[in-house]
Write a structure and sequence with these properties.
This protein has two helices and three strands. It is an alpha+beta fold. The chain has a domain of about 35 residues.
Length: about 80
């Protein structure tokens, strides 16, 4: 996790230094906090994400109100 943060900070530094005076700087500020505020999941809804060994998102496991599991592929 620390390496991802360092890579992001390095990108922000390079993007800021490469911007010319007459051009708008590249926006590197994430808007994740705004998206998280809008995300609402019911309390009785559990979610587990399985990632394959190649690192791609393979399946999403949903448990409904009755405890039944639904396995759906994500493409």
């Amino acid at each position: 996790m620390k390496s991802k943060v360092l890579i992001f900070l390095a990108f922000a530094l390079v993007a800021g230094s490469c911007a010319k005076d007459n051009e708008a700087p590249i926006q590197t500020t994430p808007v994740l906090s705004e998206n998280i505020k809008e995300l609402q999941i019911p309390a009785n809804f559990s979610l587990a994400v399985w990632v394959t060994s190649s690192g791609t998102l393979d399946t999403n496991w949903f448990t409904d109100e009755d405890g039944n599991r639904n396995n759906e592929k994500i493409y």
